[in-house]
Amino acid sequence: MKRATAQNRRGRAKRTAGFTLIEAAIVIAIIGIVSATTLPNVSRYLESGRSRAAARSVADAFNIARAQAIRTGNNHIVFFSIGGAGDTAGNPLQKKTGQPVPILVLDDGAPGSANQNCVIDNGEEIIGFVAQDGVGWGANAPGSAQTPPDEQLPNIPAAGSSFRPPNSTLLTTPVNWVQFRPDGVPVAIDGACNPGQLGSGGGTIYLWSRNRDFAITLSPLGGVRVHVWNVSTGGWSS
Q1: What is the average pLDDT across 185-197?
Q2: If both were cysteines, with which of 34, 160, 195, 225 could 206 make a disulfide (CB 3.0 to 4.6 Å apart)?
Q3: Can you tell me the distance from the alpha carbon of 223 to that of 169, in angstroms, rounded to the nearest whole number?
Q4: Residue 145: CB partners within 8 Å, gap ≥ 6?
Q5: Between 160 and 170, residue with greater pLDDT
Q6: Sheet hosting strand 186-187, strand order edge to edge
Q7: Is the pTM of this model over 0.70?
Q8: Residue 191 carries which DSSP code?
Q9: How far apart are alpha carbons 166 and 179 in whole angstroms?
Q10: Which residues, 6+ apart, have CB-to-CB distance to 88 below 8 Å?
Q11: Are 65 and 105 in contact (CB under 8 A)?
């Protein structure tokens, strides 16, 4: 009886000492299955967050430039580094620390002032927006070549911007900037800083990520609307 009791104790000790190889294999298999089903969803969630943040940055740049133009009485320009582009003189878009940025808002000074030249000059106030990984200029989703209903062009420009210089046509190469006057109205400008007429500043910036596209439209009077391409319906929603 004592021998049996001792054997039972040794058996229980072995069972409580750790996992068997079979139990460990089962746990590893379960972890692998959970990881395989969870990681893609986590990756998609993070990517969706980055693309939404990038779209918000474009909308925020428009709204900030408009608000600051009205508040200060100065022209404000929003620049986009589409294809590595800079300001109207080709100067790179970067923070004062030298860090490159995809979007930059410039306080270009009062209309007619010495430094009001659509170029980033030393001492001028700038606001830079950080880049988001996995987000690019243009469209990527199947079928999203069609434009939102409030866009002026029938097809999405390959570069991702439908902003154009003053007195342009549909065949004119898009530009990567738009200017806000002191009254908050956006107007087109060319590389020589010549402004367009009222109503010339409307346009759209297009962004893509692996799973969704965005279109951020600036109306000719300064309103901003963010559109998301819906793959299931084959259209833009806002």
Answers
A1: 96
A2: 160
A3: 23
A4: 139, 155, 156
A5: 160
A6: 126-129, 103-109, 75-80, 177-180, 186-187
A7: yes
A8: T
A9: 11
A10: 118, 119, 177, 189, 190, 191, 192, 193
A11: yes
Tokens of 171: 């065949």
**Alpha-carbon torsion, ordered 156, 159, 162, 167, to 10 deg:** -130
How does the average pLDDT of the chain come out, rounded?
A: 85
Instruction: Evaluate whether 143 touches 233 at the Cβ level (below 8 Å).
Output: no
Please report the domains of the chain, with CATH numbers, ordered by start residue. 21-237 (3.55.40.10)
Locate 228 and state its tokens. Answer: 């998301």
For the chain, give the percent of residues with pLDDT over 70.
81
Q: Write the pLDDT tens digit of every residue in 36-78.
A: 555 455 565 566 788 899 999 999 999 999 999 999 999 999 9
The 10 Å CB-count burial string (b at 16+, else e) for 195-204 is: bbeeebbbbb
Strand pairing of 224-230 and 126-129? Answer: unpaired
Q: Cα(10)–Cα(4) distance, rounded to whole angstroms?
A: 10
CA–CA dist 174, 160 (Å, integer): 9
Q: What's the token pair of residue 215? A: 């279109």
Distance from the Cα of residue 223 to its chain's centroid: 18
